[in-house]
Amino acid sequence: MAKIKEHKGTQTHAVSLITLVDPSSPISEQYRTIRTNIQFASSADQQIKTLVITSSGPGEGKSTTSANLAVVFAKSGQRVLLVDADMRKPTVYKTFNLNNASGLSTVLSTTTSVLEASQKTVIDNLSVLTSGPKPQIHPNF
User: Fold this and answer.
1) Distance from the Cα of residue 93 to its chain's centroid
2) For residues 11 and 89, is the Cβ–Cβ distance under 8 A?
3) DSSP strands (E only) in 8-136
4) Tens digit of each residue's pLDDT (9 = 90 or more) over 108-118
5) CATH for 4-129?
6) Is the pTM of the predicted complex or chain greater than 0.90?
7) Cα 135 to chain center, whole Å?
8) What number of other Cβ atoms are within 10 A of residue 35's Cβ?
9) CA 9 to CA 23: how far, in whole Å?
């Protein structure tokens, strides 16, 4: 079960990686079907190299979907960089048991490169750029 951390009335937790826990489940098969459909949508001259997963509100499965898709793409032999751009309630670092001391916020606010800030996971071909530390809000804003 995912560990839940309370913080000022909100909950953040690691998402379930069903594609690792139960790769033969029907849900895992659906993630592989999505991967295959994306691959078929690519052509030799116009390969899809970037996916953005978004929704209109919180708790709709963005982190779960992106993490599980990242796993199935990596397991198919493709190199994957999963970027967590959620600066308010990041979860990807928890899901993959990574450090969040450096990440996207670091890349955007310093001279640190994406290569330096990204972290390898235990899954071959899968690296993660966590959200990084929450940016400081200037008191005049």
Assistant:
1) 8
2) no
3) 10-13, 80-83, 119-120, 126-129
4) 999 999 999 99
5) 3.40.50.300
6) no
7) 19
8) 20
9) 34
